[in-house]
Amino acid sequence: PLRGKHDERSLVFADLTQEEYLQVQQYMLTQKDLNISINQITKPSQNFLFLIDLSLPKKAEALSYLDGKGSKPRREATVVVFHGTKGYIKEYVVGPLPKPNTHRDVTLERYKTELPINARTVTIGEYALLFKFLTAEVFSKLGKLLKESFDVDKDKMLDIFEQMPRGVRSGDRKTWVSFFRDRSGLYIHPVGFEVLVNHESVKEQEWKVERLFYNGDYFDTVEQLRQKYEEGSVKKIVYKELPDYGSLKPRTKPLQIGPQLFYAEGKRFSVSKNHVLYLDWSFAFGLSSLTGMRVFDVRFKGERIIYELSVQEAMSVYGSLTPGMMLTKFLDSSIGIGRFAHELVRGVDCPHEATFVDTYRYIDAPGPIRYRNSICIFEHNMGQPLRRHFSDFFHNSYGGMVNSALVFRTITAIGNYDYMWDFIFYQTGSVEAKVHATGYISSSYLVEGNLKFGHQVADKVLGNIHTHFINFKVDLDVSGMKNVFQTKDMEYVNMTLPWMPDHHAKVPQLVEKQLKTEKEAALRHNTKTPRYLHIASNKTNRWGHQRSYRLQVYSFAGDHLPESEAEERSMSWARYKVAITKHKDLEQTSSSLYSQNNIWNPAVDFSKYIEDNESIDNEDLVAWVTAGFLHIPHAEDIPNTVTVGNGGGVLLRPHNYFDEDPSIHSADAVYFSPG
Amino acid sequence: PLRGKHDERSLVFADLTQEEYLQVQQYMLTQKDLNISINQITKPSQNFLFLIDLSLPKKAEALSYLDGKGSKPRREATVVVFHGTKGYIKEYVVGPLPKPNTHRDVTLERYKTELPINARTVTIGEYALLFKFLTAEVFSKLGKLLKESFDVDKDKMLDIFEQMPRGVRSGDRKTWVSFFRDRSGLYIHPVGFEVLVNHESVKEQEWKVERLFYNGDYFDTVEQLRQKYEEGSVKKIVYKELPDYGSLKPRTKPLQIGPQLFYAEGKRFSVSKNHVLYLDWSFAFGLSSLTGMRVFDVRFKGERIIYELSVQEAMSVYGSLTPGMMLTKFLDSSIGIGRFAHELVRGVDCPHEATFVDTYRYIDAPGPIRYRNSICIFEHNMGQPLRRHFSDFFHNSYGGMVNSALVFRTITAIGNYDYMWDFIFYQTGSVEAKVHATGYISSSYLVEGNLKFGHQVADKVLGNIHTHFINFKVDLDVSGMKNVFQTKDMEYVNMTLPWMPDHHAKVPQLVEKQLKTEKEAALRHNTKTPRYLHIASNKTNRWGHQRSYRLQVYSFAGDHLPESEAEERSMSWARYKVAITKHKDLEQTSSSLYSQNNIWNPAVDFSKYIEDNESIDNEDLVAWVTAGFLHIPHAEDIPNTVTVGNGGGVLLRPHNYFDEDPSIHSADAVYFSPG
Ligand SMILES: [Ca+2]
Ligand SMILES: [Ca+2]
Ligand SMILES: [Ca+2]
Ligand SMILES: [Ca+2]
Ligand SMILES: [Cu+2]
Ligand SMILES: [Cu+2]
């Protein structure tokens, strides 16, 4: 039996439907002056409709509607067009849906700057040209080398994996393309050959090879490499057959299946459209093609606790002696995190009993695409008590309850890595946002000196050291929108014992502070931070304490890129474990679609949100939380990194928000006493 | 179908059987010169057989036997006698079992010091006298006050909870006894009345009340309080009926049961005596009455990885304005952690399908006691993939496997708190040791000024700030006993781009170090510690890297007690996140039975293990790991602290120990590819 009712108002946060995508696409195509192509292999020199995604309503309007005070906000789409003919990118807002009839260029409003065309994501159209270019300019000219070194020819090619950023300064679009054996798990089969392609021009005729890297040496031109190879003046790589160590094929037959989950009396949660009910919880959800999964209007016993909880960015900085990876800094939302939320496998990615939801996306494609079973929702038995007490002093009794919680999950396979994203809803009123990494590591060819950057994990293969930083947006509204940012910690104070005045003792005391400006509340990594961080209300609970939610961050993050580096501005959110800003509709994300390819001059520099140092005293606050881990790859990362130990996240816990633990009212509670 | 066979040699680590306890007890009773009592309410002035527990074999002897090279080590028991008649405590080793015929005083060998009688744990015998004393000296004299303030009389009493340590210097045994309403969850019903009892003398006739605390004021004698109360010159507490907010009774009827675990094809693990087999894992286990659960000879695919993994100590330091809790520092192994491993409840504490094991203990009792179902062992579906990768670039395929792991659990309810202890065995070769806290917080009466030490959580009740520190002993033997301690981390180094020599970039590099002495390898809290800590072998894996296990510590610990405090020496293990020592049989534990009651001059001061600063280069190493969390109680700790977010632990992960991830050989692996 469900508590509460589904609420169709959650649809203000729903992703666009297939029909809506098509309507927007049609509308854009009828704007003849924009001259837009929707062809999958549109060239960079043309105008390409890259993305259609929900344009989120303004918070005030959404709340007013949700709370029954205002009308339904106008439903609109964001459309991103790569204007190859003009040399810029534009973002349009198109609406109202259904039946859009207007569009508005919002580029300047959103980013306060024009977006140069080279800030764009590499599209499938551009990749097609790049493959063509590599075939014509590299492969066709190095037949002997490729055959002898890698055993490839026109029937059997190498795979490619690109390194980013593409250059060293704004405007650059020079990509080190690394080559890998054509196998599953190609990412751990580097061959020691990399090519620097300059594809700055939108005209592919102007592209050129700027440098080549082969077995540790650099060459200025394909011709130079070819010549030196043929005259025998390069260290040659001699092809060698290798076992298929990247394969995920089982080496053993299934013997006896492991523990399974089952719902003896049916599901205790319900999913209707984009609205979820689970015991005392309700929330709306969506999946942005760019930033990934998100929930809105999260309520517990009917009271809104979180306006928005969303994935923002996944970033990695790599180290290597090989040229591509030496500079590699991946910013995944520029490629699209949600874009890669593929089908989840029952019994592995989610329990068999989970509810699976399809999603529809429109990104770098000629039309909307359906992604079957790309979200899963299930209640899980965590295998431990949520709380319990056994007593045989004075009173013999036992009370407890098992920890069953709702998991909302997507897994995004962005190239080599698979990130598993979980939002977990506990019966205590806590919500957890977690990420775990699995999939293949990125690797490089083991040239001399490269062992300073990682460990060897296979024949001639180095698993490269790298960081993982993940950013979550946590827009808690604790007992209303007006909140403060509070910290709590301990401190030993010297006390005289009242019953023994000549004796002193150091006694722990509670230290509470309120941080009142954005700069104060931007808590950097590697600084001593108070142990308890709270978004609090000035309203109090029954015992007179400010109602609050605590942010408990789980992270094993490595060092953030030094701010002296030009690329750092695109990832400035990663400076902070937690940063608190005053909510603004125009500060929707900590990163952007343009951060990767214009990394030196990003459309969104998160640190700017803080630079105006606004008051955060009794304002609508947003917490931006960064978790991550340092990854020093090791043999056990072959074939795949495992989830155990490779993750991070944040637990949002009620702290004097309630008057007592709400799980005391759970029907799962168990109690025994003698007689 | 099980892999491997059970091995009876694991019995060298088995707890004593009921028969063995009785044999040792009988043997001790026949030593007439020792004049020992086994009466449950033996008086402090008499000689009491407090404890019988397994005396662990020497590691060299055990290994030689386990590895088929030596004979079975002599089986022996440790016996602790509180010699009230002599004023000291003795530890004896009694053996061989079965049929012991000798005993040996090992006190000096083990502790290098005599053990004064007041270092002893308060026994049930002493408690009986304390209750009697309080009735005669306090209750019977304060009838009016007790009735008016607390509504108690001779038929309806207050409960007590003692604070520790018992005084401020060695030899002290002066206990602040705090009074609580007689309800389940008494710990959160303090009444504002505390009495300082001097019970230093083993003769209860010499005990006295030294001070009283009532509603914030101190009184020298019972008579003084009585008199001032009657003349109306004290602030009176007026009894008030309060709701039963500490009750764990469900407030709701069960509606629909939550998710359950089931083994569709039976258990994939087996427990025989004290030996467990699970897929590639095997291990022996035991439960010490003092330190709690432990496993030995942990092997993966037949190769020993861990010689011993054990709980060592659970410590808490409290802050308060009230006299008892002002000084409170609990060291649970002095009361007995394993002692309180009670029956686990199916479906709450462990899944229904778990295997439950009975244990037998002999501590502060007239004979051995059976604790039914006090250990549980189960395989759990963790609700997430252990690893997975989905690919639609170049190769369409999916490979993954669900994370099923074996959990070995006890829950120890030591007074107010319940600690849940988990050792988890993963299919990746990782082992995790975790602890979560639940049960009741300790609380104090809300006198003026007390809010500096916590938050109010109920009517006139303060939840007091405190730390939780937990110590684990991790005796990894990585590819043999001779190991080194290695650290790994990252560092940004400035590099010139070889293809662009005028351009520099900061690139992450791997930094490896070996710490060669115990002092170097004693890693303090609040110091910057390398992110990766490894117990490594000089033997290498296939790729030439030292085989190692990494210790990944999860902790939210508060500040450790300053070393200036006399009490700190008893808990000096808590100075360090991780400390590495050279293994010694005589350095079996980081704490001792005597740490609580002789806290100022402890029998075991862990820091001494490090003081001789021995070489840890290619030696048998032991890692002592401290995890914990700062607990600032809040309304949601009522009635019970919840496990979610309140824990810590350590994950032991293979790192270049294998040549690839061993889970690739799991029969749970799943693979799909198109066609
Ligand atoms: Ca701002
Ligand atoms: Ca907010
Ligand atoms: Ca030593
Ligand atoms: Ca060892
Ligand atoms: Cu990684
Ligand atoms: Cu606690």
State the gist of this model.
Two copies of one chain form a homodimer. Chain A has 675 residues and is mostly beta strands.
Care to describe what's here?
The structure is a homodimer of 675-residue chains. By secondary structure, chain A is mainly β. The first copy, chain A, is built from eight helices and 35 strands. Chain A has a 26-stranded antiparallel sheet that branches. The first copy, chain A, has a five-stranded antiparallel sheet with strand order 6-7-8-9-10. Chain A starts with 17 loop residues before the first helix and ends with a strand. The model of chain A has no long low-confidence stretch (mean pLDDT 96). The interface between A and B is large, with 174 and 174 residues. The complex binds calcium ion (4 copies) and copper (II) ion (2 copies). One calcium ion binds next to β32 and α8 of chain A.
Largest sheet of chain A: 26 strands, antiparallel
Determine the most extensive contact between two protein chains. A-B, 174 and 174 residues
Low-confidence stretches of chain A: none
Give the number of DSSP strands of chain A. 35
Rg of chain A (C-alpha, Å): 27 Å
Mean pLDDT of chain A: 96
Derived from helix and strand composition plus strand pairing, the structural class of chain A reads mainly beta
Number of helices of chain A: 8
**Oligomeric composition of the shown chains:** homodimer
First-to-last CA distance of chain A: 32 Å
Tell me roughly what share of residues is in helical segments of chain A. Answer: under 10%
Give every kind of bound small molecule, once each: calcium ion, copper (II) ion
Strand content of chain A: 35-45%
Outline of chain A: globular
